[in-house]
Amino acid sequence: EKGYFKPLEELGRLPENGDAYVGCMRCVGEFEYWIGIFFPEDTLVPDGYMYADIPKGDVGTCWIYGQEDNGELYGQEPHNMCVSKIVEEGWQLAKDPWFFERYNCSRFTKPDDTGKVILDYCIYLKDE
């Protein structure tokens, strides 16, 4: 609402992410949390903004279906459920992996008739 994303939106996005914003997290020593948009490598960072280099890689994606305001989408419980499902499918997590929430338009931005949305929760997988 304050226009913080406008300078980022003007840069052009990675086509595979469409119009999604992301919240990227990892914990190596201390917890990191970055909000923004994925861009091609070597994209110039606008003045006043910071960046994290997040490498290309394979990710496991869970779709979390729930209401945004009641804890169904965020926190340790949905995280653990996604990790368990990814491991159950036979994949392994990368060492010190990045995790990210992808706020996809319109899965996330337009609630259904019951007020629920879909949050993409993605976890970097171990290279094979």
Explain what this protein looks like in three dimensions.
The chain has 128 residues and is an alpha+beta fold. The protein has one domain (6-40, 48-124). It has two helices and five strands. Strands 2-1-4-5-3 form a five-stranded antiparallel β-sheet, covered by helices on one side. A hairpin with a 1-residue loop joins strand 1 (21-28) and strand 2 (30-36). The protein is globular, with a radius of gyration of 15 Å. The termini are far apart. The model has no long low-confidence stretch (mean pLDDT 91).
Characterize this entry briefly:
This protein has 128 residues and is an alpha+beta fold. The protein has helices at residues 6-9, 76-88; strands at residues 21-28, 30-36, 59-66, 99-103, 117-124. The protein has one domain (6-40, 48-124).
List the helices and strands and how they pair.
Blueprint: H1 6-9, E1 21-28, E2 30-36, E3 59-66, H2 76-88, E4 99-103, E5 117-124
